[in-house]
Amino acid sequence: MAVEEEGLRVFQSVKIKIGEAKNIPPYPGPNKMRDCYCTVNLDQEEVFRTKMIEKSLCPFYGEDFYCEIPRSFRHLSFYIFDRDVFRRDSSIGKVAVKKEDLQKYHGKDTWFQLQHVSADSEVQGKVHLELRLNEVITDSGAICHKLATRVLECQGLPIVNGQCDPYATVSLLGPSRSEAKKTKVKRKTNNPQFDEVFYFEVTRPLSYTRRHFDVEEDDVDKMALRVDLWNASNLKFGDEFLGEVRVPLKVLGQTGAHDAWYFLQPRDSGGKAGKPDDLGSLRLNIVYTEDHVFPSEYYSPLQELLLNSAHVEPVSASAAHILGEVCREKQEAAVPLVRLFLHSGKIVPFISAIAHAEINRTQDPNTIFRGNSLTSKCIDETMKLAGMHYLQVTLKPIIDEICADHRPCEIDPVKLKESENLETNRENLRQYVDQIFSVITKSGVSCPTVMCAIFFSVRESAATRFEEDQDVRYTAVSSFIFLRFFAPAILSPNLFQLRPHHPDPCTSRTLTLISKTIQTLGSLAKSKSGSFKESYMASFFNYFNEQKYTDAVKNFLDLISSSGRWDQKTIEMPITLKEGFMIKRAQGRKRFGVKNFKNRWFRLTNQEFTYHKAKVWDVSAGEAALCSIPIENILAVERLEEESFKMKNMFQVIQPERALYIQANNCVEARDWIDILTKVSQCNHKRLSKYHPSAFLNGHWLCCKQSAESAFGCTPCTGGLPANIQLDIDADRESERIYTLFNTYMHKLDKMQEACGSKAVYNGLEEDEYSGFVIDDAKETYKTLKLIISAVHTLEQEHVQYEQDKFRKTKYGSQEYPIGDMALQCYIRQQSEGTP
What is the value of pTM for the model shown? Predict the structure, then answer.
C-alpha cells in the first residue's frame, strides 16, 4: 500500500530472515528447557509468528518473512515468547530496532541482545498539546503568570489486554512540583478526544510594572510540562502506563504559545539504568526498503531503454544486460527486470535473447546455466512469479500430507533412531518420491504458458549450439524445472507459499531426502546412483527402474518445452489462494438474529470465499462450510471504518444483499486479504462503483446517515487492480528500483564506459582491469551506457528536488511529523547541513 505525497507514492517493505536464538535463560524448574516462538511486530502490533521450537534454549527458526508495510511505524520489534506446561505464554525478551536505524543492519546477519519487556518501554501513539502562558492581574494589582495546558487528542494508543480506556495526567515539573491533574477517562477507544484545559501557576505575583511574559529565565529553564497517558484498568495491579511527553517551557519563546503533536516516549528512568540481565540473543537479517515512486512519465526514457533490450545486437550491449553486469548480485537485477518485462508482456523475447547469448558462450554442454548468471536468475524469478499457482496445484496436497503424517523416512544408518526400521523408512520415502514424481510428470498440461515458451526457446538454442549431444535439449530444461523449481519448493515449501512455516526438523529431513531424489531423477544423468556423495542415497536408487523414470521425465520435458501453446488452461480443482483464522460478524440472516462476533477459519479459492467452524485441511474433501460466497457474488472489498464497531483492522466483503464484516489479526493481514479478494473479484462486471465505508447500525448508515439498508454507497470504491493474481506488478515501482541500482553502481557504469574506450577492449582483447565486464561490442555498449547515465542523472535531479521541497514543507510538530520522531530529526539535520 502506497502513501501518496502530491503525485509521488511512497512504499515501505521489509524482508526478514529470523535465524536462531541462543543462550535463552533456563526455565526455573527441573526441566529447564523452554518451548519458544518468535514474533515480528510493527511497534506493538504482531504481524508474523514463527513456529514453536520445543525443549530448547538455543531454538533455530530459519524462517523468512516479507511484507509491504501499510502504515507509519517507529520500531520494528521481535519478541521471544515461552509457552509453559499450562499453555500460558510469557515474554522472555525483545529486540526493538528504531526505523531510522534499520539501514545500519541492511542485508547483514546480525546478533541482537535480547532486552527486558516492560510496560514502561512499550509505547506507541501521539498526543496533541496546546500551551499558552497567560498574564493574570490579581485583586491586589500584582501580576502573575499561569500556564494554560490544553490536551486535545491522542492517536494510535496501544490496546492493552484487549481494551483501551485512556486518560491523561498533566503536571508541571520544576523547583516547586505541582499536583498532577487528570482528564476524564475515554472508554473503548485508542484515538481519544479529550479537549480539556488545565492551569498551572508558573511565577510568583510580580509588581504591576513588570511587562508581559517577563519571566525569570532561570525559572523557565528548570520547568517542564509532563503529560502521562494511562489505560484505566479494572485489575488490582492498577492502571497501565501508555507513555509520556515532557515539554520544556522554553519552547514558548517570545510568543508565549506553543501548539504541536508529540510522539509518546518511554517513562524517564532519571538516568538510572540497572545492570542488564543476560536474556540471550537473536540472529536476524533485515532488509528494509523505502521506494519513492514518481508518476509514469518520469520513468518512460529508462523503461523504453530497458524494454528494447531484446532487440539490441549484441544483447550484451543492452541496458538490461548491463544492469546485470554492474550489480554485485545478479539477483538484485533479475527481480525488478523480470517484473518489468512480465508487466510489459516482453519477458519471453528478453530471456530468449540473453539465454541464446549465454549458451553460445558456453563451451561444454554439461555446464549450461551452471553459474548464477543473469539468465538463470531471470528464469528462476519468472518461474517463481508465473508458476506459483502451478506449484499450489501440483505439490501442495502431497506436501501437506507429508507434514501431517510425520512418517519416518530417515535412510542414513548413522542418523537412524533405535525405534526405527531402515527398510520401513526406505519404503516410506520411496512412496513419497513416487507420489511426487508422478504428480510432477503428469502436470505438463498445467505448466504456465510463459514458462513453456521460455523452455522452448532454451531447448532450441541448446540443441542448435550442441548438435552432437542428443540429450542437451532435455538437460537444458531439466536444470530449471527440476533443479531450480520443483526441488527448492519441496525443500523449503514455506518460501513458495506452500506452507505457512518452515517444517519441523523431522519433516524437514524427509523433504530434503525427497528433494535430492527428485532433483536426481530429473537430471537425466547417465548414472544416477553415481550422482550422490552419500552411499546410503546411492543404494536407495537401487529401488528405482532408471529407464522407466527417464522416459517419464523426457515425455514431461517434451510437453512443457514444445512450441505449442495452451492459452486457455482451465483447472477443474479449486486452487487455495489464502486461508486463516479471522473474526467475523454474524450476517444476521434471520430477522431477529444475534449480531455477534466469532472466530472462524476463512478460505479463499479461485472459485469461492468460505468460512468454517474449525480449520479445514483439504479443500477438495467437500467439508461443509458455514457460509460460501461465490467469487462472482463479491461486488467490492473495502476497509471498514474503525468507529463502526470500535475495532481495528476490519474490512467488508460486499455481496448483493449484505456485507460480511471481518476483523483480521493485524494491519498487514488485513491488507493482504483485501488485496487478494479484490484481485480475484476484479473481473466481476457487477462490481460496485461506490460503497459505504461504515456499517449499517441502529437503522442507518453511520457514514452518510441514510436510513435504507439498500441505499447506494456514498464513497467511491478503491478497486482498479489488475485481475491477474500472480502478476500484479507496478511497473513504475520496478523502474524506481532499477534506477536505484544504476545509481548505486554508477562507479561501475563509469568504469565500463572507460573500458569501452580502451583500445584493447575495442579490438576484442581482454585487459585484466576490465575483465569483469562482458563487452562484445564496445561501440554499441558505450552508446547504451551514455543513454543509461543520462536517464539516471535526470531521475536523480528529480529526487533531489523532491527532497528539497519536502524539507521546505515539513513542519516539525505537525500531525504528520510529531516532535520526538528521531528519523525526522535526523532528516532535518541532514538537509540543513546539505547532506543528500
Answer: 0.77
